[in-house]
Amino acid sequence: MTKKKRERKRKLPPELEHTLLATVKSVTVSYYVGNHGDGVSDEALTDVLCDIVAITPNVPKHLGKEVTCSLMCSRQYDCVDDPDEKVWPRIGKGQTVPERPFLLNMRLGKDRGLFSAYLPEAAYWALQADFKSGRLKFIEAKFIRPRHGYGDLTSIYFSETRPESAKATAAIPGV
Fold first, then answer.
1. In whole angstroms, how large is the CA radius of gyration of the chain?
2. Rounded Cα gap, residues 43 and 90, in angstroms
3. pLDDT tens, 102-126?
4. What is the pTM of this model?
5. CA–CA separation, 159 vs 126, rounded Å?
6. Which of 82, 97, 142, 166 could be stapled to 155 by a disulfide with Cβ–Cβ 3.0 to 4.6 Å?
7. Residue 8, Cβ density class (10 Å: 0-12 exposed, 13-18 middle, ≥19 buried)
């Protein structure tokens, strides 16, 4: 009778969080509305085109490349006969979807990158106004180390000035 050698299962190290800092170049806004099943839904989309100015851990091939931050907000309107509405169609009040923000993923390709999030309605419209006015100049995104170019987004920080956390990172000189 031979004894089987018991091997220890290796515990994987925690995922390393990466940080990307980008400067805002331009902002474009679009809006979609359409019928679906028993109602109507709409979606507002703001694409913020940026240049990557810092990334940690240091990945020099991404510095200076473009990245797009897509911010979205969605609502659904049920087709119900709402007696409180005075004009036709009486479809009721819009319900914001989702009620809480959720982050999608980070995509870093050889030429450009993309990350996106759905935001609550009030936050979406406030940020859009700040971007359009030129007040917000920096976006810091944190994400789990990408595999095959994709990583889970863990946070997005919008600011008027370069975030303190990014000042000590590898960066393009002078930014």
1. 22
2. 20
3. 899 999 988 899 999 999 888 998 9
4. 0.75
5. 13
6. 142
7. exposed
Query: Residue 65 has which token pair?
Result: 């490349």
The DSSP secondary structure of the chain, one letter per residue, reads -PPPPPPPPPPPPPPPEEEEEEEEEEEEEEEEEEEETTEEEEEEEEEEEEEEEEEES--GGGTT-EEEEEEEEEEEEE----TT--SSS-----EEE-SS-EEEEEEE-SSEEEEEEE--HHHHHHHHHHHHHT---EEEEEEE--BTTEEEEEEEEEESS--GGGTTS-B-TT-
**Among candidates 75, 23, 26, which has minimal Cα distance to 46?**
26
The answer to whether the beta carbons of residues 47 and 70 sit under 8 Å apart is yes
> Tokens in use for 40?
């109507």
Amino acid at 134: G
From CA 103, how far away is CA 32, in angstroms rounded? 20
In one letter, which amino acid is 11?
A: K
